[in-house]
Amino acid sequence: MVEQRDTQAGSADSFVVGVDFGTLSGRAVVVRVRDGAELASAVLPYADAVVERTLPATGEQLPPDWALQMPGDWVQVLRTAVPEALAASGVDPASVVGIGTDFTACTVLPTTADGTPLSDLSEFRERKHAYPKLWKHHAAQPQADRINALAEERGETWLSRYGGKISSEWEFAKALQVLEEDAEVYAAMDHWVEAADWIIWQLCGSYVRNACTAGYKGIYQDGHYPSREYLAALHPGFADFVPEKLEHPIGQLGERAGGLSAEAAAWTGLPEGIAVAVGNVDAHVTAPAAQATEAGQLLAVMGTSTCHVMSSDQLADVPGMCGVVEGGIVPGLYGYEAGQSAVGDIFGWFVDNGVPAAYRDAAQARGVGLHEHLTELAAAQEVGEHGLVALDWHGGNRSVLVDAELSGVVLGQTLATRPEDTYRALLESTAFGTRTIIEAFESSGVPVTEFVVAGGLLKNAFLMQVYADVCRRPLSVIDSQQGPALGSAIYAAVAAGAHPDVTTAAQAMGKVRRGVYVPDEQRADAYDALYAEYLQLHDHFGRGGNDVLHRLRALRRDAFARAGRSEGGARPTDPATTSSATAPAEASDHRTPEEQPA
Question: Is this model's pTM higher than 0.85 or not?
Answer without folding.
Answer: yes
